[in-house]
Amino acid sequence: MGTLQRKLQTFLGRLAAEPPFRLFSRSLVQHFGRSMRTKALWDAVERPHYLLGMLRAVDQARRQRVPEICVAEFGVAQGDGLFLLEKYAEAVERETTTRIRVYGFDTGTGLPELSGDYRDHPDFYRVGDYPSAVESIRSKLTDRTSLIVGNVAGTVERFVEQDQQVPLGFAVIDVDFYTSTRDALKILSHPQRKLLHRVALYFDELDLDYFHQWAGEFLAINEFNAANAHVKIDKWHGVHKHRPFPENPKLLGMYVCHDLEAISRVVLAREPVARAT
């Protein structure tokens, strides 16, 4: 491709993303686009943040030369998000060759018992909200996907110690309560954790006026970072950049878990650079 052609392509791409044209452009991508990366960029799929996190995981896996990863959704409810993860995994795997396993975690009976105080937002949530039709969901899943039923306070630890075979690359945290979020995040801090060096995360309960730093997912994140010296959760800095729809509120929930200990091991394993004498 010549220089002039590249410049023209860049100009047309920027023009398509301008506010007067971007809705039309997104419609074209929805109906005619084939690339999952293009669809994720243009928010041209249902729950594009799920696809964005999965693609971020695949990119990290390729950097580390990891051939297979897993992604997880905590809080399955009626299964809509889990079905989408499975659908996206099939398409992304086909485009990138990175193999992707999918896991869903849910109580099966809705939200569990509250913590007993304000931390679980009892003014908004109730025990038993969002129950799952477990057998119906399982009947619609392929062999790629597993639904793990039970309170995450117990299922996460068993999963890491007994069932998880490949590193986690992306996780959706949608369990609503502080206590459930705290327990779900143990998949990132367990002594036997299996993670990519950077794990994309999506938190679903951060963008309404009743959420705050002393309850819910914000509190769980803050406590996680305070308790773990070698694994940290931070915002996905720059996630809004170069996107036709940077105002998408779901981007506010995109975070990254950094396994600082694993990254340090990579640095220490490198041969020292010879210094000139």
Task: Characterize the structure shown.
With 277 residues, this protein is of the alpha/beta class. The protein folds into two domains: 1-32; 37-269, Rossmann fold. It contains eleven helices and seven strands. The protein has helices at 3-16, 19-32, 36-41, 48-64, 80-96, 134-140, 152-163, 178-184, 186-189, 216-227, 260-269; strands at residues 68-74, 99-106, 145-149, 168-173, 195-203, 231-235, 254-259. Strands 3-2-1-4-5-7-6 form a seven-stranded mixed sheet, sandwiched between helices. Strand 2, helix 6 (134-140) and strand 3 form a beta-alpha-beta unit. The longest helix is centred in the N-terminal third of the chain and has 17 residues, at 48-64. The chain starts with a helix and ends in an 8-residue tail after the last helix. The model is unreliable at 273-277 (pLDDT under 50).
* Structural domain tally: 2
Structural class given helices, strands, pairing? Answer: alpha/beta
Strand proportion, as a percent range, falls in 15-25%
CATH structural fold name of the largest domain: Rossmann fold
For the CA atoms, what is the radius of gyration? Answer: 20 Å
The CATH class of the largest domain is Alpha Beta
What does the average pLDDT come to?
90
CATH architecture of the largest domain: 3-Layer(aba) Sandwich
Q: Name the strands of the widest sheet in spatial order.
A: 3-2-1-4-5-7-6
Number of strands: 7
Q: Which bin fits the share of residues in helices?
A: 40-55%
Number of H/I helices: 11
The profile of the biggest β sheet is:
7 strands, mixed
How far from one another are the termini?
45 Å
